[in-house]
Amino acid sequence: MIGVKLPALSVFRTRLSRFQQSYLHTCTTGTAPSRQPVRRGLATVSDTTILPDPSQKYKPYTPILLNDRQWPTKVLDKAPMWLSTDLRDGNQALPNPMNIQQKLKFFKMLLRIGFKEIEVAYPSASQTEFMFVRSLIEDNIVPDDVWLQVLTPCRPELIKRTLESVAGAKNVIIHTYLGTARIFREVVFKKTCTEAMEMAAKNVSLVRDLTQEYTARYGTNFRFNFGVEGFSQAEPEFVLELCEEVKRTWARAGLGNQRITFNLAASVEVAPPNHFADQVEYFSRNISEREKVIISLHPHNDMGTAVAATQLGLLAGAERVEGCLLGHGERTGNVDLITMALNQFTQGISPRLDFSNLPNILNIVEECTDLPVNPRLPYSGKLAFTAFSGSHQDAIRKGFQAQQKRHEENRSKGEPQIWSVPYLPFDPNDIGCSYEAMIRVNSQSGKAGVTSLLDQALSIKLPREMQTDFYKIVQKEAERTGKEVSIRTIVRLFRQTYRLGIERPLSGYVTLRSYRATVNNRRLPLLSTESESSSVTIEADIQCDGVTRTIRGSGSNPEKAFFTALTQSLNVPMTLLESEQHTIEPKSGQARPLSLSSSLSTSSSTRSYNNNSNKVASFSKISFPISSLQQTLFWGVGVSNDRSDAGIHAIVSAVNLGMDQLRQSSSSLQDDKIEYPRINIPPRGQKLMMLA
Ligand SMILES: CC(=O)SCCNC(=O)CCNC(=O)[C@H](O)C(C)(C)COP(=O)(O)OP(=O)(O)OC[C@H]1O[C@@H](n2cnc3c(N)ncnc32)[C@H](O)[C@@H]1OP(=O)(O)O
Ligand SMILES: CC(C)C(=O)C(=O)O
Ligand SMILES: [Mg+2]
After folding, report:
1. Whose CA is nearest to atom 17 of ligand 1?
2. What span, in angstroms and rounded, lies between the C-alpha atoms of 184 and 191?
3. Which portions of the chain have biased composition (kind: Low complexity) (predicted)?
4. Helix count and strand count (H, E) for the chain
5. Which of 57, 299, 401, 660 is most buried by a 10 A CB count?
6. Closest C-alpha to ligand 2, atom 6
C-alpha cells in the first residue's frame, strides 16, 4: 500500500467548501446549484456549424481542491489485488450472456491466469446466474485460496437470494452496491442523502446478519465489498459520510481481521484521470482507520482513459482493481486488466497474473463473449506489434540486430538482457506471440520490411544493394493491388524474379542444364587449399528456347570459369563485380522456412530441394549492357548445398535479369536506331541464337 500522511480533516473541509456548498444545497433542496465552470467551451457557433455549442450543453468537471496532492510524485512498485468481473459486469453487457458451460470455461481460464478474486455472478438476476454459483460450489471447482465475489443491490429480497447462492462456499466476498451521485439519488432512487444513507445502513445490516448466520452454519469466510456506484460523479463529502456509516454498520459483524473493501466506481467515466486520482486520494486520506480498509477501483472507459485513471488511482492510494479482460463490460467497457497487468510487466513489475499464452486466452474470451478483439487493442490486438511503415520496420530490424549483440555481451558478463528495440516496447514472445506478425508489407513499407520477411520466410539475407532492387519489385506489386503483400507473395516474387526453383525453362531465358568442373584436372568440389589460385575449367550445357549449347571456360574458381564461358558464349561485354554468400540457417524457434522448391542442378540429374536447411545462398552482382551506351548492375541469387554451385546459379540468375532488361529496352529504343551489342536475343517467345 502507498503510505499517505493524513492532514487534519479541517484542512480538507476548508478546501472543499465548494463541494460542501454544492452537497448541502443538493441535500436540502434536492436540486443542483448552478456551478461556475473552470473553463468554457470553444465558443461561438457559426452559421455553417452543425455541432451545438458544447458550453451550452455540457458542464465540465469541477476540480477537487487538493492542492497538496501526493499521487503525481509516486511510483507504482507492486501489483494491486486484482478482481476479474468478466463473469458479472462483462457478462451483463454481452448481447448474448454466457451460458453455464461458457461461464465455467471462462472461470477455469481465470484460475489459470492466477486471479484470486473473481466476481462470478449477479445471483439474483436469473436462474442461470444462481445455478452457476451453485455448480461452482457443489462441484468443488473453487480452489481454497480463491474468493468468489457475488453482486447484489441494496434490496433485501435480492440480498437473501444472493446469500443462498453461496451457501457452503469457502471464501466469499459479498459486493453490495448503491448509486451515490446526485443523478442516481434524485432520478433513480428518488431519495435525499439522508435517506440514501439509511437505505445503505439497513441493507448492510442485513448482509452482516446473514453472513454471520452463514458463517456459523457453513464456516464460510466472508469479506464485504461496498460498491460506491457513481463515485466519480458524487460529492466527495457525501461519499465519505456514507462509507463511514457503512463501515460502522459492518464493523458490528466483528468478522475478525478481514478489512472492508470500498469499491470506488467510475460507473460512467465523466472526467479526466487526474481528477479521478484526486478523488481517490481525498477518499484515501480521509476515510477513518485507513488500515482497516481496502480501497478498490472499478473504472469504466467512457472517455477512453480507464487504464490511465486506474494507474493514477493506484498512485493515489488504491490497492485493488476490478476490471475485465480486453476491457469488456457495460458500454465502452471496464478497465482492461490485460493492459493493466502488462503495463506493469513492461515496467519490470510482476503483475502476478500469467498472460504468457495470451493467444489462447483471447480465443477463449472471443468464443465465450462472441465479440471480436479490436485489432488495435494494446497487447491483445492482432496489430498491436505490427509495423507496416518502412521507417519503423527499418528501426525494428536494426534494433533487433543491436539487441542480439548487446544480449550476447550481457550473457557473457552474467548481466540481465534488458529489452530495448525501437517501436517495440515489449517482447511479443513474453505473451506467446511470435515475431512473424510483427512486420507486414504494403505500399507504405520499405526495403527493411521486405528484407525481414524474406529472411523470416526463407532465412535468406539479401545484400544491402539487392534489398533496394527486390523492394522495388514488391512495392510495384503492392501498388498494383493496393493491398497488403503477403509473405507467400513475397516468396513467389522472389522466386520469379531470380528464377529460383522454376522447373520449366521460360522462353528467352538461359537455363543451366548441367556442368562439369575440374580443378587441377580433378572434379569439383574445391579443396580448402585450392580456391583462388587454382585453375578451374568448366564445361556446361545451357539451354534457351529449346536450343542446347555446350560452353567452356576457365578461371581461378568455378564461378569465374563459368562466367567466362557464358560471357564468351553470349558475346556480351558483361563483368562479374561481386559475390556474397551465407549459409541458410533457420532461426531457432522459427517454423520451418518456406521452401524454395528448388530444382537447381549440379549435374545432369535434376534435384528437388524441399527445405533450405544446410544450404548456401549466393548473390552475384554483374554489370550488363542494356544498350550500346549503358551498363546496368544486376544482382542474381543461387541456392544450393554446394557453395560453388550456388555461385554459378547466382550468375545465371543475374544474367537472365540483364537479358530481360535488354529485351525491354531493345523494344523501347528500336525507333531511335541505336546500335545494340552484338547479341542475338529475340523478344520473348522466339529462339535465342547462341553465338558461341
Ligand atoms: C453499475 C452496475 O453495473 S450495477 C449492476 C447492474 N447489473 C444488472 O442490473 C444485471 C442484473 N440485473 C437484473 O437482472 C435485474 O435488474 C434484477 C433482477 C436485479 C432486478 O430486476 P427488477 O426487480 O425487475 O428491477 P429493475 O431491473 O427494473 O431494477 C430497478 C430497480 O432497482 C432499484 N435499484 C437500482 N440499483 C439499486 C441498488 N443499488 N440498490 C437498491 N435498489 C436499486 C431501482 O431504483 C429500481 O427500483 P424501483 O423499481 O423501485 O424504481
Ligand atoms: C456494481 C458497481 C460497482 C458497478 O459495476 C459500477 O458502478 O460500474
Ligand atoms: Mg461496473
Report:
1. 125
2. 9
3. 594-611
4. 19, 15
5. 299
6. 267
